[in-house]
């Protein structure tokens, strides 16, 4: 039996990062294809029913991010995390990272993740203290 050559840890990490990125690309391409079908269907109905309206001139709205589990899912998840970590403290950042992983959120950049943490996580924590 021949020995397998050990992969350099740096290369292994790079390969894993690339594989994860490729998986995200596949997932996003699937979502994009679905959104394009919706867009084309809407444009066809608009063209049929309101030929004077140009859909491309309409303002683009940022799609709301729906939580799996519906309304109250974020607060419920926060309570579960706090119960699991009790009596130890949990930082807001640690809470946000746990929630991000649990809900499968992917942010395009750090500032987007920080904005979500400030707007969603901190707001939910404040509501829970009332």
Describe this protein's structure.
There is one protein chain. By secondary structure, the chain is mainly α. It has two domains: 9-57; 73-129. Helix content is 66%, strand content 0%. It has four helices and no strands. The chain has helices spanning 9-49, 73-85, 92-103, 110-129. It is flat and about 60 Å long. The mean pLDDT is 84.
Q: What is the CA-CA span between the terminal residues? A: 66 Å
Structural class: mainly alpha
The total tally of domains equals 2
Count, helices: 4
How would you briefly describe this protein structure?
This protein is 66% helix and 0% strand. The protein has 130 residues and is mostly helical.
Attribute tags:
130 residues, mainly alpha, 2 domains, 4 helices, 66% helix
Compile the SSE list and pairings:
Blueprint lengths: L8 H41 L23 H13 L6 H12 L6 H20 L1
């Amino acid at each position: 039996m021949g020995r397998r050559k050990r992969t350099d840890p740096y290369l292994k990490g790079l390969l894993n990062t690339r594989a994860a990125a490729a998986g995200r690309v596949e997932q996003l391409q699937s979502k994009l294809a679905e959104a394009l079908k919706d867009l084309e269907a809407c444009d066809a109905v608009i063209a049929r029913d309101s030929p004077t309206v140009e859909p491309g001139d309409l303002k683009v709205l940022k799609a709301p991010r729906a939580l799996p589990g519906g309304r109250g899912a974020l607060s419920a998840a926060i309570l579960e995390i706090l119960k699991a970590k009790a009596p130890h403290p949990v930082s807001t950042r640690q809470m946000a990272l746990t929630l991000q992983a649990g809900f499968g959120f992917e942010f395009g950049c750090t500032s987007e993740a920080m904005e979500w943490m400030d707007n969603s996580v901190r707001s939910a924590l404040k509501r829970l203290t009332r």
